[in-house]
Design a protein that fits this description.
homodimer; alpha/beta; Rossmann fold; 6-phosphogluconate dehydrogenase C-terminal fold; Alpha-Beta Plaits; four-stranded antiparallel beta sheet; 12 helices; globular
């Protein structure tokens, strides 16, 4: 949290779902006056009870910032309305698609700043709201104007990381990095309906990772896809063309050119994943160690305590379960130069190592 | 490990890579005589030094089991050769594709049992071998004959879980559950090459999960795909057709039928992923809680210790890093009826909760 004076002293939140209420809680913690509106009186009362601010009425003073956190299909009209109701206020929205909203909102003299906090994967009412919802998450701000300076300070005061891009750039980026992966995960998962039940014991961590986000809310994602339909379709078609080229090569695998095509398709994927930043991404960035643990409470904590006591900084970890035995597999990722010490230290304490990246 | 007498008293391992040497180590631990062969003298010496058994020569007694653990492209001919060299031995292979090898091996009077241990994701030499490599992992055995009974006992003695299916059924199952997800993950990851560097801060856990296995070894996977080319192509084409239907709907999103098609594509994915067994799969099976931790050594262990002390059994967990702030996000999955106690207990101790599935 910033210690500088907050750029806005009175904020109107329109829409008290997960995002709107979480913004409100973060502002209340900074002693900003927060007034709430919602088309649902019961949700509004819930947000008020939750400490998010006061229900606004005709006598409530005008805000200097309006946060529109309504469902995406009404966001543009609510923003337009807010710009006219509060002629001196800056207005932001928090919808997950930006270009169509930015185009639909007429002027506002630069007072409308489209934004997108990349947090809150699932829908939820005010009671799902958390003051820490935005902590450490990217929050796209689609403007670089004088008006947007206060918005950026607001975003930072909520613990989020400002990313600046245009509405169109945002929509192209999330099509690539979020919407298309969701569509592909769903398509792979839909195939699992064809599987015989006995096959499922062969499902390893790979297919689980690829299909995990297919468990997301179809209603929410259908709305997101519709709001970004052309950029999402562009990506899906590009991926589909890659798959068609690969299957054509596999149908003619004795052809020498086919082997090159298969190899290149896999290599392009390996190159692409290495461009993901941070602690994840390419397996080559870290050494990995797979430890077998008994599948009972406390084992994971004991293992991680042992890792900590060996003075090794864990870069990443994942947990996998055996399909038929009461054991779990913990994959630990550490810096290359810590790997030998970690393996030897854990083995000396009797931990069972089932593999490492060498 | 079983305490019954081991079904084989003398085993010949042909190919001392990761799999062959790991089998050898597991057998040595059970005091089985293990003789080793490898086309590479230096790898053979390494495996011997590693305690995997003795290098075989002309005077070595014949084995009652041969384990062929060579690269897949030579497996069928090595198996055929072993069946003729050791006319009283049972012969198994451990290659990851089964139908083409089973068809290529001529008879053997039922002495050849195709198998596939689902362990050891990466290639590696003998020094990557682990006695616990197979612990808790599925191991497909493609026979139900008298000869296969000893093989099943062997597999169980190595800690693995026997799954019985025919070679063709195996290949269809792994095309669906392993090979096609690998191909799709690579195709999505290959798209990331188009991204501008500034977009990458928007990459969340979803795209990371979908593309994680794209970091695998292209050389190894090209061989696997080629060995199972038709079943893999079948799946890839089916997924590509799903994607084409989805992009067609997105190109015509104002058409009322298009919205239904988009929603159904997402719902089919949600239904499919719920068929994955075990502790993972559908997000609805467990309640999830996202805890924000400082990104420094010991925090994860401290959190998991706190979870353990609250008496809550952790069903799953994953770790995510912030793109721009020194914090991490730990997603804890627990049984629905433990979720409230866990959230309240952690909050009381000052842990920062950034979200939960409600």
């Amino acid at each position: 949290m910033t210690t500088a004076p907050h750029p806005f002293s009175r904020v109107r939140i329109i829409g008290t779902g997960l995002l709107g209420t979480s913004v409100a809680l973060g502002l209340r913690e900074q002693s900003v006056e927060v007034d709430l509106e919602d088309s649902s009186p019961s949700r509004l009362r819930l947000a008020e009870d939750y400490g998010a601010g006061k229900s606004a009425d005709a006598s409530t003073p005008a805000p200097d910032l309006v946060v529109v956190a309504t469902p995406p299909d009404v966001t543009a009209s609510v923003v337009t309305d807010a710009l006219s109701r509060f002629p001196d206020a800056v207005v932001i929205d928090v919808a997950s698609v930006k270009k169509n909203i930015a185009s639909a909102v007429s002027s506002g003299d630069g007072r409308f700043i489209p934004t997108h906090p990349m947090a809150g994967r699932e829908r939820g009412g005010p009671t799902a709201a958390r003051v820490d919802l935005f902590t450490g998450r990217p929050w796209v701000v689609c403007a670089d104007s004088a008006e947007s300076r206060g918005v950026r300070a607001l975003v930072e005061s909520l613990g989020a990381v400002v990313v600046q891009m245009s509405p169109e750039e945002h929509d192209r980026a999330v099509a690539l990095l979020s919407h298309a992966p969701q569509a592909i995960s769903s398509a792979v998962a839909a195939e699992l309906g064809d599987a015989e039940a006995s096959w499922m014991n062969l499902a390893g961590q790979g297919v689980r990772d690829v299909t995990r986000i297919a468990g997301s809310d179809p209603e929410l994602w259908a709305q997101i896809f519709e709001g970004n339909s052309d950029f999402v379709a562009d990506r899906i078609e590009s991926i589909s063309r890659r798959l068609d080229a690969l299957s054509a090569a596999l149908r003619d695998v004795e052809n020498p050119g086919a082997r090159t095509a298969v190899h290149e398709a896999l290599q392009a994927g390996k190159d692409g994943v290495s461009s993901l930043p941070g602690k994840h991404g390419s397996a080559e960035r870290y050494s990995t160690l797979i430890v077998v643990i008994d599948d009972r409470p406390g084992q994971l904590a004991a293992l991680l305590t042992a890792v900590g006591e060996l003075g090794v900084n864990l870069e990443d970890m994942s947990l996998e379960h055996s399909p038929g035995a009461p054991v779990g597999f913990v994959e630990l990722s550490v810096a290359h130069d810590s790997a030998d010490a970690l393996r030897e230290g854990l083995e000396a304490q009797g931990w069972r190592i089932s593999g490492d990246s060498g």
